[in-house]
Amino acid sequence: MIDDKLLFHDLGNDDKGIPPLVNNLTKPSNVPSVIGGQLWADQANEKLYLFGGEYADNPPDSSLLWAYDTWNDSWTQVTPGFNGQGEMKRASFGAGAVVEHMGMGYYLGGWIGPQSVVGWNGDKYAVPGLISFDMVKNVLRNDSGPAGDPRVEGVLLYVPTGDDGLLISFGGYYAKGGKDPVGAPMNEIDVYDVNQKVWHRVMTSGQYPESRRRFCGGVTSASDGSSHNAYIYGGASTNSRDKGFDDIWVLTMPAFQWVKWWVHEPPNIHNGFSCNVIRKGQMIVLGGTFPYDQSVCDAPTAWGAHNMDLGQANPESAEWYGYKKNLSTYSVPQKIINIVGGRQVTLKAYFQVFLN
Fold it and tell me: Has the keyword Repeat been applied to this entry (predicted)?
């Protein structure tokens, strides 16, 4: 059964080590309750946009985009303009990202099928494009995705570098022919230049994580902009329904090298959650499922949430630590510095060379 509520964490409260979860917002029954969708935050207008996802308990309807006004606690079905290739359909379990200062939301790939599209007959299949939503102009656009097969159940993360930044995509499945899922190797990183609207492929160096899907991640940056680090947690295996992960890896850029940062033994495998970076220094991992025992919450007093201290800025230098409402800085952890080497200053120009 799907949870049909709209909840929020009060980030101004750190009394219990995790911001309290509050349930006092409106969500009418006609607003979709979906899984595998995307929430885009419009910081300037203090709105949330709900895009995509599949219906778990009810047949799908024809709506594509909804907006939630945080000031007025109200929902509106949005009818955006469309500019791009092909027909726009509701997809699920693609990869989403938002660039708040530009008012842009992005959604890469995903499945379309009977649980997401009205009147769909037949099996689900994967779509290849990159959808963007201009929150200022209220326009959806469908552009080309990375070369090769469509992507599903991976991540799409924004990296603030270059003219307008980069989007990086990795993990999940490559859907061969749009239907047959094959695990995407985690050393293959697809990079999208937001300004030029072009894709590139970058191969990482050294060790890298096992192929996984339905994990989550977030990006934070060194204070001088010399490096950017993508932290990922957990996920389900792409090779076995009975396997998953309970670990943290960091993709450090511009070196494009993976660092195994933390692993729990024995693993309490966990997938289907969200990762939310808070003011550079922390990332809250929220929700998800435990395939071995879905009846038990591993953190019932913290509403199923966990806080990752990205810079280990705590007395224990721990990777997981209580949420601190006043932490707003990030320093690259020594473990990453030791493996990658220095502050990556010698590689600082790499992105510019790459973009050129």
Answer: yes
- CB atoms under 10 Å from CB of 285, counted, come to 23
Assess contact for 230 and 222: CB atoms under 8 A. Answer: no
| 31-50 as b/e: b if 16+ CB within 10 A | bbbbebbbbbbbeeeebbbb
Kind plus residue range of the DSSP H or E element containing 256: none
Residue 78, SS3? strand
pLDDT (tens digit per residue) in 87-135: 789 999 999 999 999 999 999 999 999 999 999 998 999 999 999 999 9
CA pair distance 336, 30, nearest whole angstrom: 47
Query: What is the spatial distance between Cα 169 and Cα 171, in angstroms, rounded to a whole number?
Result: 7
Give the CATH superfamily of 31-190.
Kelch-type beta propeller (2.120.10.80)
Cβ–Cβ under 8 Å, residues 2 and 27:
no
Distance, in Å, from the CA atom of 336 to the CA atom of 230, rounded to the nearest integer, reads 12
Q: Is 347 helix (H, G, I), strand (E, B) or coil?
A: helix
Per the CB < 8 A criterion, the answer to whether 161 and 150 are in contact is no
At 289, phi and psi to the nearest 5? -135, 150
| pLDDT, greater one: 121 or 348 | 121
